[in-house]
Design a protein that fits this description.
Glycine cleavage system P protein, oxidoreductase, GDC-P_C, 33 helices, GcvP, seven-stranded mixed beta sheet, 37% helix, alpha/beta, pyridoxal phosphate, four-stranded antiparallel beta sheet, Aspartate Aminotransferase, domain 2, 1009 residues
Length: 1009
Amino acid sequence: MERARKLANRAILRRLVSNSKHHQPSYKSSRYVSSLSPSVVPGGNNVVKVHNFNSRSLVQFIGSRSISIEALKPRDTFPRRHNSATPEEQSKMADFVGFNSLDSLIDATVPKSIKIDKMELPIFDEGLTEAQMLEHMKDLASKNKIFKSFIGMGYYNTFVPPVILRNIMENPGWYTQYTPYQAEISQGRLESLLNFQTMITDLTGLPMSNASLLDEGTAAAEAMAMCNNIQKGKKKTFVIASNCHPQTIDVCQTRADGFDLKVVVSDVKDIDYKSGDVCGVLVQYPGTEGEILDYEDFIKNAHANGVKVVMASDLLALIMLKPPGELGADIVVGSAQRFGVPMGYGGPHAAFLATSQEYKRMMPGRIIGVSVDSSGKPALRMAMQTREQHIRRDKATSNICTAQALLANMAAMYAVYHGPEGLKTIAQRVHGLAGTFAAGLKKLGTVEVQGLPFFDTVKVKCSDAKAIADAAYKSEMNLRIVDQNTITVSFDETTTLEDVDKLFEVFAGGKPVTFTAASLAPEVQNLIPSGLVRESPFLSHSIFNSYHTEHELLRYIHRLQSKDLSLCHSMIPLGSCTMKLNATTEMMPVTWPAFADLHPFAPTEQAAGYQEMFKNLGEMLCTITGFDSFSLQPNAGAAGEYAGLMVIRAYHLSRGDHPSNVCIIPVSAHGTNPASAAMCGMKIVAVTYPSTHGVYEEGIDEICKIIHDNGGQVYMDGANMNAQVGLTSPGFIGADVCHLNLHKTFCIPHGGGGPGMGPIGVKKHLAPFLPSHPVVSTGGIPAPDQSQPLGTISAAPWGSALILPISYTYIAMMGSKGLTDASKIAILNANYMAKRLEKHYPVLFRGVNGTVAHEFIVDLRGFKNTAGIEPEDVAKRLMDYGFHGPTMSWPVPGTLMIEPTESESKAELDRFCDTLISIREEIALIEKGKADIHNNVLKGAPHPPSLLMADVWTKPYSREYAAYPAAWLKTAKFWPTTGRVDNVYGDRNLTCTLLPVSQMAEEAAEATA
């Protein structure tokens, strides 16, 4: 009987498996359904492979054991890997907070008036598994066609050294770091960014540089704003030479509108300053069509008329060309993309801005400076502009918050790896290939080569530019058509002699070519005029002359990495910054050549995979946010703020709403909000409500209605979307436009300070005003009637397109339920931590039912009176426990804002809570007089090995207590590499480039004297 029963059960199993062929799992994007093989079911000594399992079958039997459908589902589902709390932990944590379930906590926390019933994504509603996602991304990648690019225009193919690709770009020890606001646990990336600044100052010939901007176009716009500020707003015309890249011109024109500046575009030879109203002039060096002009007399004339000169330059060209600083330029901008950073269909890339010491206080963005620590030893820190928006708000020099730190680090390492001689070899080779091509065209005699000198771009006059470009297209080469009779051909590091030969065949028009590039190359001379040849040295510091083998560079990279705390080590609980898991599956497609090697101005049919992803992503973001259309162009959160406000501005102008220029902003808003509004020409009125205090505002929908009833529009900052996804949405609440920090809620990693992405969603009536682009047609997704675009926001049509796959894969793998659960668990985690800490620290601001949202604020203000302790002391002591500090003194001075995110485990939440409780006990020792109020373990923090191992120890507490305040640290300890960095010394003695080792030692000695 037993044997017969087993045989019968096996027959049932076979029948169910057979039937399942006609009942595949239901996905709304059916193309990407994978079978569930090789799922295996044990049955005694037998193994049955189950393919295409019927999800409607409930139970299957093998022997006497029943197996549920859940046991046969794939194991690589993503939400359970991202949302860390298990169902059992969720129940216990909810109970600890005072609720019988997670859902009851959510119901008590999210106001009913703004809560949505359910979110259903239009595609990937159930969520793809990790394996299915990678297959889908491979399918999209296969639709992108990578032709050899000769387009140029500021974007070039480059070889990313594998040692940099693997150990920086693909390394979570580099890409999960936070912005280096806590210098003592950021010394590695600070050194790398200082290398970047040194590289820029050396190549441009100007002494000051920032630590990267978003792209060349917006860097030029920042320089324009600097010229306006230098002239104190008294001269309102900015002149742009027509030889600048078209995207740069358009970005500047858009930005000028908000500053009430008049932009005049003119040929270089026709520029004059007769009006007396010109604050600055922008020229390109070399020009967008390749020409090299001698600007020395031009600059002298501008200066004689009180006009500042901005030069947009190419770093590789500056290896061979006379530096702009030596020509007299006041500001130099450009992109470091071709220094080992993929084109990535437009970004992310590190831009730069260099200037003189005179204008250092007007520079936008971040500057890394040399200072000393508490022991007098050299240490690095972010200087001057450290979050200046939170202090100066609408008076800030710019709204920049996110930079491109990860890409700046890659570019800096590229220079370290190649060194000055290696870079010279690359530059000379590129120039030689361009010269060889020009010589060959002259020999062919079928077209006319421009007579001006050039570096890497050859301008060609011909009878039919389109016919030549079409012929090149058939050979899988992209050329730039300037007009019907003009083509430019740009060469780069990846170009070969064989590529030049293929070009000869194209330009020969089918006629035989009797020579080769190799045969012509020996005859080609340096085509740069002697007066413009670089003679000054560059990259002479030992760092750029020491690590030219892969082994040495690998060790240098890892030496810097070991100095930096990242998500590899512990949670980074920054309020409003949402430092969550950046999953490996999300990151993998970013470095695939089919996504990484595409020029942003390539024909759109070559980017079909990207375009499909943009469409899918836009539709899903519309569902998530409740909006009707999205623009993916803004390439940072603050850029999204600016773009959203400019959309509102354009809307009002189109309706004749004059003067609708007042922007009401809560006092607790991110500092970039008023800075962005000021850039749009708006007048800022501060109000106290609504707040950014980590709770849902009960009356937010009513506020939106009042604004609408009075003819206004509502802009919502998307920094706190992690408490909204699947539970409510900006569009449902009543907002008209919102930017999303994809590097927060949607998993693009922070990269040590960037990259970021800040796409904006809008309601239907605002869709016609979304950003456009002068080179590639763009707009909203889904495509709206874009009849009145506000202009161009970023240099590339779709911003930093290369990192969009990260957010796309996150959303597609999580599915509707996974995303909603993420918001719920983020709220649960915050409430659990707040409950654990409330007996030790006052928790400010709770909702009407006593709960917080996804973040909360603990009040430290009382400790200043009772123990002399400031928030900074707590943040520095947290380093000794292996943690990064929460957001300090914002939005309320004297507090810490903590956001745990959904991807942190309960064990990690407890470890952090235990740490803060332990620190509270250390404060209590001061309050009780058992520890010195001036010389205690918090004031002495952090404690690096150099301090702990010193011959003399004068602290009133033990070395062991300083180093190991918690038991778990004996097993795994992250060590700060410096003592507390002296901020005041660093600003008073501002140095933003590498110093010789001997000089650093001398300055350290002076500091301690």
